[in-house]
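Quick one, T. Sequence first:
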Amino acid sequence: MAKEPLIHLFDWSPHVYVDPFHTHDHLEIGYCLSGSGTFYFGDKTFPVQQGDVFVVNHLERHAAASNADNPSRYLFLYFDPTLIEQADQELLLPFVYLPTKFQNRIPSGLKAARKIGELFLELADEHENKQPGYRGMMRGKILQICVQLLRHYVEETPSADWNRTLTSYYRIKPALDYINERFREPLSLEDVAERLALSPSRARHLFQEKLGTGFKQYLLQLRVNEAKKLLASSDLPIADVMYAAGFQSPGPFYRAFKQIVGAAPLDYREQAAKLALFEKISGENKTTREALPR
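Structure tokens:
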């Protein structure tokens, strides 16, 4: 039986200080239920208020902080891209953005934020009550949320710029698919360039231009994300995790993991185990996530 795509919905309140910047191996949408604070995406800073929606892809480093006098509280949704890709590839477009130019925040006063907020509350209700067929209902709600995102960004983006986004996405997608399938193996820029029928220099430029990151950093991100999953979900020795994630030697593995996650692999595994125990005791539906580097 095929494994179901990841769907994870949870309640989260940031600290009043800024946690380490982090990335995820999945797509992420946040809805501010109450309070205020600040969200950081690379060099961008967004104020947060009740009703705001935030969009995060798997590449952009981000962090959040609460207002000490009015702490923010969110519903966050993590999901695997295959969930929406199977329905309509176009729904992925809001998540394929150049970080420096993308507006991650949809302010609460906009129609899209209000509609997405309503869908988030319906999603949370399905998740909490778990009536028969709730998984199908949750998938349907997530697709509706992604449709609202797509329509919002189409409306907010000049048509010429949106057409360039479409062209860029379909130009680089074969390379991303190839890397996602092969990142656990030795892989070079030349391999990817050959797949795209481009020169290595042109392929390098395409990554930087379309994703805002280089090929090497993109590959490292995928491998570190895989290592995080294995550290949190298995008892494999760290050396085996390293090889299973596509790294060939300890030095590059430890440096990349520390750079991207902000913690050493063993520390991350210990923190993940503590969080899993806390969730088991508290009940996942009511969990507030905090300090695990992500």
